[in-house]
Amino acid sequence: MTSNSTATGISHALAGQRQREKFRWLYLLAFTLIIAASLVLDIATGPSMLGLGDVVRTLLHPELADPTSKAIVLDMRLPIALMALVVGAALGVGGGEMQTLLDNPMASPFTLGMAAAAGLGAALSLYFGGFGLSPMVAIPLGAFVMCMLCASVLFGLALLKHVSSQTLILAGIALLFLFQSLLSLLQFLSSPELNQQILFWLFGSLSKTTWQTLLITTVVTLLCCVLLFQDAWKLTALRLGEARARSLGVDVTWLRLKTLVLVALMTSTAISFVGVIGFVGLVAPHIARMLVGEDQRFFIPLSMLTGGFLLSTASVLSKTLVPGALFPIGIVTAIIGVPFFFWLILGKRSHHA
Question: What is the chain's Cα-based Rg?
Fold first, then answer.
């Protein structure tokens, strides 16, 4: 009788697990379709009034499109729309893995100081005239170098065995304030014209995207995501707690360092081309976690999709909020992110109550 009830319990548990996995696959499929629709809408939005039908026809049959539609859709708008998806995916996964690694819902590349470091690097490049390099090279390079410098401090701390995830969070917040203070000092010393350039970069913008910068960001993001996905089981085990993960044979120190390196490389590359964009890396993983839980096999791809969707939606809004003007996308993500984040916090509290 006991063995029968045990077998029944196991079969029920397996059936429940299969049902959950089925829903997780459905969420991935649904977000893939939503992103495809968002991409087309992003391309169709802008000052030149192109209809959705024209955009779809130009994308599917470019050889049949008229030269004007072809130039607007394929040369101007498509790389920007794709960059929104790729950068959103990078920030979504980056934030998700930071939260997994440090077991803190507030962790993201933005809150750990990486975005502020990138902002300082870009501002230094502008202030010193690009160090003799072209602005198209100097600004992303300065942002990347400073972002990796900030990450290196976190790498060093992660290698120390007595340093906990809470200490890393506090160190990240300290670095955030340090870089923001140095950036404020630089703005105080700058001329009004230079200040405007720094501010524009800090607000975040996809408008300077080229096929080359899109290719670099896509390759780095996909490579880092694949390497993170290889550690999906270990990262899922880490969510059970560091002690339990170690008992399952996970080298927590090495996993923490490897994940930090990959997240830093991915997010610094994205930020260096589009500027500082907040809240995507904080909000996107929460949406993914609410839908598919902590199983990293589903959490990583859904974090990519939700991040891409959020930034793609923000890109559409940035072109429609003020007719005829391009609103800075970093401000739009904050407008979307802040109320949504409050909803998440209040929703969780009421759920626990």
Answer: 22
User: What string of H, E and C letters represents the secondary structure of 36-90?
Assistant: HHHHHHHHHCCCCCCCHHHHHHHHHCHHHCCHHHHHHHHHHHHHHHHHHHHHHHH
Q: What is this structure's pTM?
A: 0.87
Residue 93 counted as domain residue? yes
Which tokens belong to 141? 């390079």
78 and 58 Cβ atoms separated by less than 8 Å: no
Q: Which residue has the tokens 């976190």?
A: 154
Residue 263 DSSP symbol: H
Rounded CA gap, 227 and 219, in Å?
Answer: 12
pLDDT one-digit tens code per residue, 94-125? 999 988 888 777 788 888 888 889 889 988 98
Q: What is the CB neighbour count within 10 angstroms for residue 199? A: 13
Name residue, tokens 């003020």: 322
- List strand residue ranges (DSSP E) for 189-234, in order: none
Rounded Cα distance between 208 and 199, Å, is: 15
Residues 225, 305: Cα–Cα separation, whole Å: 12
The CATH code of the domain that includes 303 is: 1.10.3470.10
| Most confident residue range from 228-232, 261-265, 341-345 | 228-232
d(CA 330, CA 284): 15
CB 236 within 8 A of CB 188: no
Taking residue 80's Cβ as centre, other Cβ atoms within 10 Å add up to: 21
Count up the domains in the chain and report the number.
1
